[in-house]
Structure formats: C-alpha cells, structure tokens
Design brief:
binds 2-phosphoglycolic acid; single chain; alpha/beta; globular
Length: about 250
C-alpha cells in the first residue's frame, strides 16, 4: 500500500481533447515512478480514453469525476464505476460540492457512489466541506464530521479510500483557510474516520480549494494533510507539477 501524498487534478468541465491530451502527455513525461508523490488526473468523461492512451506506461493515474450508484441500467447520460474501471481509471471523485449543489447529491447518494466505486475496484475520493455560512456560524467541524460519517462507507482502508476536505467557499475563489483551520478540520476528519476503520491513520486526507504553486508548500506541510485536490491550477502543466513537487 502506498502512503505517498496524492496530488489529484480535477479538470472539471474544462479543456478539449487536444488540450487535455497535451496536458496528459506533458505530465506523463515529467513524473517519475520514484516521485515523492502519487499523481492522478480526472478529465471529463468523454476524454478519459484519449487521456488514458497518453498516460499508458507512466505512473500518472487516471480518475473519473463522478460515477453512478448503479453498475449499469437505464440512467441516460450517466457513467458507471465499472465503465470508468474499464477505461483504465483507478480513482473516482465522489460528492464534489459542485455535484452536491448542481445535482442535489446527498450524503446518502455520495456514500452509495463510493460503495459502487469500491465494488468496481476503484478508490473513491470522497469530498466534504462546509459553506461560508456554515463556517461563519462556527459549525464547520460538526458539518464536516457529519458529512464524513454519512458519506464514507465503513470498513475501507488506506489503500481503498481517500477523503478530500474542500471548503466550498475556497473552491475557485483564490481564498484558503488558515493553516490552523486546515489542521483543525483534518485532525477532526481523522478522528471521525477512526470510528469507521481501524486503518484511519493510513487514509489519505487531501486538502482542496484554491491550491496553487504559491500556497502548496504551506498547505501540504499541515499535519494530517496527505495531498491536494486541485482544480484550476491542475489545468496548467507547470503549475500542477509545481504543486506536486511541493510535497
Ligand atoms: P480549485 O478547485 O483548485 O479551482 O479551487 C478545487 C476543486 O474543486 O476540486
């Protein structure tokens, strides 16, 4: 089992095939197997196969941005976890705040997606995080703790589960919590995970939300921060590599 920090790139609904494959090719050419970090990129579903071709033979892993709770069936427009696995994915993001907001995904749905991911052999990256109003109200730890309790399946371990803490108000805004705030939330998540798995210490807990080269060293050095989930800055080869090399 790897305990290396995980640097995950969430491309969201960005780039086209030419730009996505070029980015993947550059990353594949730059990342060595012996790196101090593990890297995964999560392209839009239509480009997974083209990106997989670019990553073949490199240590850069491939991930989906979402999966359905079911393995197959009458779900127009959706993508299942076995399909992602079939294309070469080893990870899938579930419960990103944009999915929770845009598609009404509840903790129960997110948990079912994480379970579907595991059933297909994928490692779910389960996202949690408070809104700005919740932070202002002083309920961050309660909210995030509840999301972990309700969204994360029981019994997974460091090899089969990743959790990402992404404050909703920090995503795409250029704003980040203080390192003390990040430390407090990550320690809380670690504690909550202990009730779910005897392997909580080995579960990687990523920080996400406006991670960039200029703040990556500081954020990745925080206790219980085991990597980063990166949106905007993962779209530029130099920036994403600089973040990864900050571990
Ligand atoms: P950001 O997005 O790095 O652009 O803030 C992070 C995410 O939403 O995963």
């Amino acid at each position: 089992m790897t305990t290396r920090p995980l640097i995950a790139g969430n491309w969201k609904m960005n780039l086209d095939r030419a730009a996505g494959t070029a980015l993947a090719r550059e990353l594949a050419g730059a990342v060595a197997s012996a790196s101090a970090f593990e890297m995964v990129v999560c392209p839009p579903a239509p480009y997974l196969l083209a990106v997989a071709d670019e990553l073949a033979g490199s240590p850069v892993a491939l991930g989906g941005q979402d999966c359905h709770t079911a393995a197959s069936g009458a779900h127009t427009g959706d993508v299942s976890a076995p399909m992602l696995s079939d294309l070469g994915c080893t990870y899938v993001i579930v419960g990103h705040s944009e999915r929770r907001a845009d598609h009404g995904e509840t903790d129960t749905i997110v948990r079912a997606k994480a379970e579907a991911a595991r059933a297909a052999g994928l490692v779910p990256i389960v996202c949690v995080g408070e809104t700005e109003a919740q932070r202002d109200a002083g309920t961050t730890l309660d909210i995030v703790g509840r999301q972990v309790v309700d969204s994360v399946p029981d019994g997974l371990d460091g090899a089969t589960l990743v959790v990402a803490y992404e404050p909703v108000w920090a995503i795409g805004t250029g704003r980040t919590p203080t390192v003390d705030d990040v430390a407090a939330v990550h320690a809380h998540i670690r504690g909550v995970l202990a009730a779910k798995t005897p392997d909580a210490a080995a579960v990687r807990i990523l920080y996400g939300g406006s991670v960039k080269p200029s703040n990556a060293v500081e954020l990745l050095a925080v206790a219980n921060v085991d990597g980063a989930l990166v949106g905007g800055a993962s779209l530029k080869t130099a920036d994403f590599l600089a973040i990864a090399r900050s571990v």
